[in-house]
Amino acid sequence: MTKPEAERSAVIVAGVVIVVLTAAAFWLSYAHLADVARANGLAVSSARRWAWPATLDLFIIAGEVLMFLAALRGQVDPWAIVLTALGSVGSISLNVAGVGTGQPVLHYVVAAVPPSAALLAFGALMRQVHGLVARTTPEPVPIEEPAERVTVERVPDLAPELPGLAPEPAAEPTPTPSAPPALRPALPAVPVALVDHARKVADAHRNATGTDIDTETLRVRLGVPPILADAIAAQLA
Questions:
Q1: Are 187 and 231 in contact (CB under 8 A)?
Q2: Tell me: the pLDDT tens digits for 158-176?
Q3: Amino acid 162: pLDDT
Q4: Would you list the DSSP string of 105-145?
Q5: Would you give the distance in Å from CA 110 to the centre of its chain?
Q6: pLDDT digits over 218-233, tens only?
Q7: Helices 54-72 and 105-136 meet at what angle, rounded to 10?
Q8: 19, 88, 94, 155: most buried by Cβ count inside 10 Å?
């Protein structure tokens, strides 16, 4: 097994463990909050007793989904962090407060562990996602502008006239050739890693649409300038 395959396997296993841990922690926290609601005014309605924890835990789920989406884009969403933090702190506080006063310390620990474990597990998952996005995002490649060509015309030297010698007839002026058409700037060099990434994007486009990807679509997918997109397309041809 190669190192990339080992890393991919470890990430998958960690992701599965984190998802199972989060689901178990949410279930324990949700059930305890339902018991708290039953003991504080909602005992007459089973539906409302079980729906009440959703008014708090759904803030956590919404914030975590938004944070996961921002992590896939390599960004940070402050509002998602605020939603997740407020929902998690509220869940931990209500789980602990629902134990009541004068109870053994372990009762408070048992109540606080599930929501705390769910928050820590999601933080570990976000760390893995950010690391994967950072490793798969190609670095921008600096583009060197082609040097401007300068044409220098040589002026012929005029021979001095000697006494007693007839001056030679003046040579007819040589017509100046017209300026060559503008040359297309040389394509920049493309790193191998960027070409490999572009090839994966092109293969995915071909599998999804059945047609080869054009240069403009490739440029938009990679987020590179047009001249670099032309160089990459030439490599993929």
A1: yes
A2: 444 545 545 555 556 565 5
A3: 45
A4: HHHHHHHHHHHHHHHHHHHHHHHHHHHHHHHHSPPPPP-PP
A5: 38
A6: 788 878 788 877 888 8
A7: 20
A8: 88
Find out whether 67 and 83 touch, Cβ atoms under 8 Å.
no
Closest to 57 measured CA to CA, from 28, 77, 97, 78: 28
Three-state SS sequence of 78-106: HHHHHHHHHHHHHHHHHHHHCCCCCCCHH
CB 187 within 8 A of CB 230: yes
C-alpha to C-alpha distance for 209 and 203, rounded to whole angstroms: 10
Tokens of 187: 């394509």
Closest CA relative to residue 63, chosen from 44, 93, 86? 86
| Residue 178 Cα to chain centre, angstroms | 50
d(CA 81, CA 68): 10
Give 42-64 pLDDT, tens digit per residue: 888 888 888 888 888 888 888 88
pLDDT at 183: 53
Q: Which tokens belong to 129?
A: 């996602």
CA distance 27 to 4: 35
Distance, in Å, from the CA atom of 175 to the CA atom of 169, rounded to the nearest integer, reads: 18
The rounded distance, in Å, linking the Cα atoms of 192 and 213 is 19
What kind and span of H or E run contains 229? helix 226-236
Q: What is the pLDDT of residue 232?
A: 81
